[in-house]
Design goal:
The protein is mainly α. It has helices spanning about 25-50, 55-80, 85-100, 100-110, 115-135, 145-165, 170-195, 195-220, 230-260, 260-265, 270-280, 290-314. The protein has one domain. It contains twelve helices and no strands. InterPro entries: Diverse_Substrate_Transporter, EamA_dom, EmrE-like.
Length: about 325
């Protein structure tokens, strides 16, 4: 179990990283992570479909956090915002990376670039950033195999994005980079504060709903009056319940069991799963280079997660 410092160091209470997880924790963490990967891969597909048809990014985020905020409000009413544990900086980073700002960046980028590029760049860049920043911020060592894992994940992610890059997609790539950075901050806070997954998800969703929905209603363009009800219902249910509540909770559980770098690395499988889903749903069939890049990402994930757990079993 990790040793926890009950004093406040800065605005976030520091929780030093523990040793590598046990074999059972690795198995459970992998299961949670893979479930989250499946849900979030579908979210990229659905968001891309939404912004290409009847709904804009502002509408999709409003539907997402309207539902998630209502579902998770009882958690906040019962447990609060964890202000003493997080502080203003921790709370801000948690909401930025797990709430509406991250979702807005992802949806905005998908207006310029396809789902496969988003699914490659955002998780891949976040994974590399978490592993590198975690050396100092979390005390998680970056051994040679894990360094190779970071390199493989990053190389595979960049390859996938570069293969299908086209005119006018550079703004989308820049926005995806911003999304990866705010998600990195979320992972750092989650690991350092040792806040549980459901509570962290509820904080991000409820604060996002309270802050974003009034701004959306008063100032942002809306397609609610013209979009088909079926489109809105699908986005609300999948994005609000699936991606925000279940997907984020599953990711939190993976991070707690595998460590920040290990849990984050599983999200690098999102490009692989997204490619498999995009072929029948969006007509995006991966080419040979895409498949090679997917193998690189898979190898990186194994180096950052499974290999680490196997060493603990030995």
């Amino acid at each position: 179990m990790p040793l926890r410092d009950t004093t406040m160091t800065g605005s976030i209470r520091r929780t030093p990283a523990s040793a590598a997880p046990s074999g059972s924790a690795v198995i459970i963490g992998l299961a949670w992570g893979l479930l989250g990967v499946l849900v979030w891969s579908g979210s990229f597909i659905l968001t891309r479909f939404g912004v290409r048809t009847s709904l804009g990014p502002f509408d999709i985020i409003a539907l997402r956090f309207m539902v998630a905020g209502l579902l998770l409000a009882p958690v906040i009413l019962r447990r609060g915002l964890a202000w003493r544990r997080l502080g203003p900086l921790g709370l801000g980073l948690l909401v930025l990376g797990g709430g509406a700002p991250y979702a807005l960046l992802s949806a905005a980028g998908l207006q310029y670039a396809p789902a496969g590029q988003a699914a490659a760049l955002i998780p891949g860049l976040m994974t590399a950033a978490v592993a590198l920043i975690g050396i100092r911020a979390l005390g998680e060592p970056l051994t040679r195999p894990r360094m190779a894992g970071v390199a493989a994940v990053l190389a595979g992610s960049i390859t996938i994005a570069a293969v299908s890059a086209g005119p006018g997609q550079t703004p989308g790539h820049a926005i995806f980079l911003c999304a990866a950075l705010v998600w990195t901050g979320y992972v750092m806070v989650l690991r350092r504060s040792a806040i549980d997954g459901l509570h962290a998800t509820a904080i991000a969703a409820v604060v996002s709903a309270v802050c974003y929905l009034p701004v959306y209603a008063l100032f942002l363009p809306s397609a609610f009056g013209t979009a088909p009800v079926a489109d809105m219902a699908i986005q609300a249910i999948y994005q609000g319940v699936g991606a925000t509540v279940f997907g984020l909770y599953a990711f939190n559980q993976a991070v707690r069991r595998l460590g920040a770098a290990g849990g984050a690395a599983l999200s690098a499988l999102i490009p692989v799963v997204t490619m498999a889903l995009a072929a029948p749903l969006l007509g995006e069939v991966p080419g040979p280079i895409d498949l090679v890049a997917a193998l690189l990402i898979t190898a990186g994930v194994l180096l950052l997660t499974v290999l680490r757990g196997c060493r603990r079993l030995g």
